[in-house]
């Protein structure tokens, strides 16, 4: 069955899937359609499927791999999804709980079917060791207590040839890429090189194509996955009964008094700095001495390489009463009357040119540039190498994590509990844990000044909404109602955990803290999920890191995205948890609540509202127009 090479690489001689592997359930209509058309889809050696969360992409990907019937590598974005692939294959196809020996979880020891994360692949290709807690492939928006286990690689895939050799030895000819847009830049390089060397059939599966990325990123995504072969809409799946009826709601808040002071201070400082810079004599002299201003026709290639930088220079000079010569006006195709006023955006463009992009001609002004850059950074007007007078990371953080959202959460929870009572199965997601609000004392009267998992738990606990049963699930803190402890211990015992350690919440004996050890950590999510499904927890509060992709609790009928700084991809994945159907509950519906804090000092509503608008571009719903129509985005 197997042999070892001199490198001790275990190689399996299995070249096809075992016979009689059969999916245990009927195929959904769209799945059957894809399978019926599989031969034509694979003529370009790519199959690219777009379908919403909960639509069964994982089992479809497994069936496609079985029908292609070659040694296969499956790449997943997170450990949770990685485990889900193995679990679904064993449970729904092999119909066993035992993982066969021809499946590998280690890219360094590939077998007929190898299932790993993108991070695991990249780490192996660079000799980087990772702990068991790999980071989310899409971003670093994880809990504060979660250590970063993958340092930025500078090894440039020095071990990739050995990894490719191992995959070739087992004959890998199919690669399934699950949510492949979830990749850091250096991980893309690893994956593209792997594809080039193996020339495999690529099966790309995604719920959320990265429509909101740059053209370069989109090209990279399509180069890997190929053009979209079939895209399944949410309404189609609702009609077919594959997703439940659902509605997205928006709850808007305004900043607290303290947050407003911070926002107003930033706006005033930005305006004061802008007014100073628009009359800066050194900056004016530097721009006037640049060759592009002095001899534009001799530098057309440079000008057209980035016309916005050239335009910003002309606008700045024009605002300082400099006459714009005719040859400049011909280049931009305008008269002097058409030149725009100098505003924040044009000033930011000019400063990026002056501080960062021009490498030679501004060298005589190095001292001025350094002083100016430092001042801009101290005032929060530079992030990386981008200048902005309207955006600030600090302001954005205060908006996305505004304490005002707690009042919104309280009202939403009260409303949902009033309507659903004991049938409520709500999940609330936040970005941070904020353990400083969980003291080891007999009372907890700490004033809540920050948004996070524990502040949300504390606010709802103090409100004492009827007999509402709260729970907390993060990687480092698990809280359940005391009355759920017996069922927790019963279910833990089924996983082989005898009497897990626990202690009452110091300031409220109605709740219990579960002490996790290394063994329990592997099963705690499944156990808490089962308790939540039963209704022993009615409102579960956690982080995206733990309750994200791959986490499945079909009973969810209400989701609050509290302080969720997510992209198009992340938010749709979260939302997908609430719109799945539930066996035995044909009347299930899902409510998804999106909270945003409005910045009243800026016309576009601020970064939090802009993020909300971006998120809603991917959501489909029924408009309020007459006649009603199916639309996306905020109408």
TrEMBL record:
Extract the signal peptide range. Answer: none
What is any Pfam family matched here?
ResIII
Any GO MF annotation of the entry: helicase activity
For the keyword Translocase, the answer is no
Per the database record, which ranges form the Helicase ATP-binding domain? 38-227
- Kindly list the GO CC terms recorded for this protein: cytosol
**Which UniProt keywords are present, listed alphabetically?**
ATP-binding, Helicase, Hydrolase, Nucleotide-binding
Give the source's domain of life in one word: Bacteria
- In its UniProt entry, what is this protein called? DEAD/DEAH box helicase
């Amino acid at each position: 069955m197997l042999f070892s090479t001199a490198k001790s690489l275990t190689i399996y001689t299995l070249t096809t899937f075992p016979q009689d592997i059969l999916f245990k359930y009927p195929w959904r209509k769209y799945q059957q359609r894809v399978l019926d058309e599989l031969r034509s889809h694979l003529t370009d050696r790519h199959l690219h499927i777009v379908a919403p969360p909960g639509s069964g992409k994982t089992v479809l990907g497994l069936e496609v791999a079985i029908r292609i019937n070659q040694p296969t590598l499956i790449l997943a974005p997170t450990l949770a999804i990685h485990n889900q692939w193995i679990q679904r294959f064993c449970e729904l196809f092999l119909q066993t709980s035992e993982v066969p020996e021809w499946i590998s979880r280690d890219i360094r020891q590939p077998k007929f079917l190898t299932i790993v994360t993108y991070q695991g692949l990249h780490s192996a290709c660079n000799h980087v060791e990772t702990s068991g807690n790999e980071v989310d492939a899409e971003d670093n928006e994880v809990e504060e207590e979660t250590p970063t286990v993958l340092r930025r690689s500078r090894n440039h895939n020095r071990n990739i040839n050995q990894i490719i050799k191992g995959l070739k030895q087992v004959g890998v000819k199919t690669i399934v890429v699950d949510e492949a847009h979830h990749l850091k830049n250096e991980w893309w390089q690893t994956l593209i090189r792997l594809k080039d060397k193996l020339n495999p059939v690529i099966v790309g599966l995604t719920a959320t194509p990265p429509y909101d990325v740059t053209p370069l990123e989109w090209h990279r995504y399509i180069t890997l996955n190929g053009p979209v072969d079939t895209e399944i809409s949410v309404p189609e799946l609702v009609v077919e009964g594959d997703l439940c009826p659902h509605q997205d709601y928006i709850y808007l808040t305004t900043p607290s008094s303290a947050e407003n002071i911070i926002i107003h201070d930033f706006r005033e400082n930005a305006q004061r700095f802008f007014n100073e810079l628009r009359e800066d004599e050194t900056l004016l002299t530097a721009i006037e001495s640049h060759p592009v201003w002095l001899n534009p026709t001799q530098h057309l290639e440079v000008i057209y390489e980035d016309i916005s930088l050239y335009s910003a220079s002309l606008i700045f000079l024009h605002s300082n009463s400099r006459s714009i010569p005719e040859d400049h006006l011909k280049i931009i195709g305008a008269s002097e009357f058409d030149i725009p006023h100098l505003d924040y955006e044009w000033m930011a463009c000019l400063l990026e040119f002056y501080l960062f992009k021009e490498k030679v001609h501004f060298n005589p002004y190095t001292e001025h540039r350094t002083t100016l850059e430092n001042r801009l950074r101290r005032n929060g007007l530079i992030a990386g190498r981008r200048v902005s007078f309207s955006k600030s990371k600090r302001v954005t953080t205060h908006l996305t994590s505004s304490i005002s959202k707690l009042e919104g959460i309280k009202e939403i929870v009260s409303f949902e509990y009033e309507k659903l009572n004991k049938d409520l199965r709500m999940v609330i997601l936040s970005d941070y844990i904020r353990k400083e609000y969980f003291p080891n004392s007999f009372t907890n009267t700490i004033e809540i000044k920050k948004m996070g998992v524990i502040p949300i738990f504390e606010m709802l606990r103090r409100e004492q909404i009827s007999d509402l049963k709260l729970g907390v699930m993060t990687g480092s803190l698990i809280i359940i109602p005391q009355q759920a402890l017996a069922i927790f211990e019963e279910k833990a015992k089924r996983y082989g955990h005898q009497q897990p350690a626990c202690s009452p919440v110091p300031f409220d004996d109605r709740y219990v803290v579960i002490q996790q050890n290394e063994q329990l950590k592997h099963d705690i999510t499944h156990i808490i999920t089962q308790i939540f499904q039963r209704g022993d927890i009615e409102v579960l509060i956690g982080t995206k890191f733990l309750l994200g992709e791959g986490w499945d609790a079909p009973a969810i009928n209400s989701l609050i995205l509290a302080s969720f700084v997510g992209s198009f991809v992340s938010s749709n994945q979260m939302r997908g948890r609430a719109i799945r159907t539930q066996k035995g509950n044909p009347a299930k519906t899902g409510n998804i609540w999106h909270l945003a804090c409005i910045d009243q000092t800026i016309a576009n509503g601020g970064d939090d509202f802009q993020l909300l608008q971006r998120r809603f571009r991917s959501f489909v719903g029924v408009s309020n127009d007459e006649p009603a129509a199916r639309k996306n985005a905020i109408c």
